[in-house]
Amino acid sequence: GGERPADDLVSLLSATGRHDEALALIESLRSPGDSLPGPADRVASALPAGEAVLSYWLLNDRLLATLLTAEGARLFSLPVRLASVATLVQRLKVSIELDSEPLAATVLSELYQALLAPLTSALGATHTLVIVPDRELWDVPFAGLTVRRGGAPFASHCEIAFSTSLSELMRSHQVWTKPRSILAVGDPSWD
């Protein structure tokens, strides 16, 4: 937790509409020595229709979410505090430890409302979403998030993948292909 040295600059750049610079700084922090192959809109235009990349950067007072689709790049500033995300992730971990399905279902829905609901119209008909998490968001089971308690998991609407950075994603996925198999990890004794 806590403020990272560059968070103030990322915050200032995003607040003043300098989104490409904010994203470039975020990427240089995530993947030192690498850089994006151009402005965010150009990176986004390389994505096939129906595929999107969602890059999160968690500040103390809000969550920055950069959404890249074939139509372009958009930056969202969400009213989600670092402490709120940490609390929700901790509640989810406790619900799993206590084997409390009702509590887990509630927290999964709360996480969806905080992290994905504000972006649903911008995601449109996305069928493949690559998520670049930040900080505590690495512990969020995005595939299992639900619109409402007990609803269908987010993964039932689109395929989800993860990357450590946009730079790494663009370098390693010059040609995007569909996976031939899936590896799912979970606790089989917890239904």
Give an overview of the whole structure:
It is a single chain. By secondary structure, this protein is of the alpha/beta class. It contains seven helices and five strands. The protein has helices at residues 7-15, 19-30, 40-45, 82-97, 101-115, 120-123, 166-172; strands spanning 51-58, 63-69, 72-78, 128-132, 159-162. The chain is globular, with a radius of gyration of 17 Å. The protein starts with 6 loop residues before the first helix and ends in a 19-residue tail after the last helix. The model has no long low-confidence stretch (mean pLDDT 85).
Descriptive keywords:
single chain; 191 residues; alpha/beta; 5 strands; globular
- Secondary-structure-based class equals alpha/beta
Query: How much is the average pLDDT?
Result: 85
* Main pleated-sheet profile: 5 strands, mixed
pLDDT < 50 stretches = none
> Beta-strand level of the residues, as a percent range?
15-25%
User: What is the N-to-C succession of helices and strands?
Assistant: HHHEEEHHHEEH
Shape: globular
Radius of gyration: 17 Å
Helix content: 25-40%
Layout of helices and strands:
Elements: H1 7-15, H2 19-30, H3 40-45, E1 51-58, E2 63-69, E3 72-78, H4 82-97, H5 101-115, H6 120-123, E4 128-132, E5 159-162, H7 166-172
Parallel strand pairs: 1-4, 4-5
Antiparallel strand pairs: 1-2, 2-3
Helix pairs in contact: 1-2, 4-5
Quick gist of this model?
By secondary structure, the chain is an alpha/beta fold.
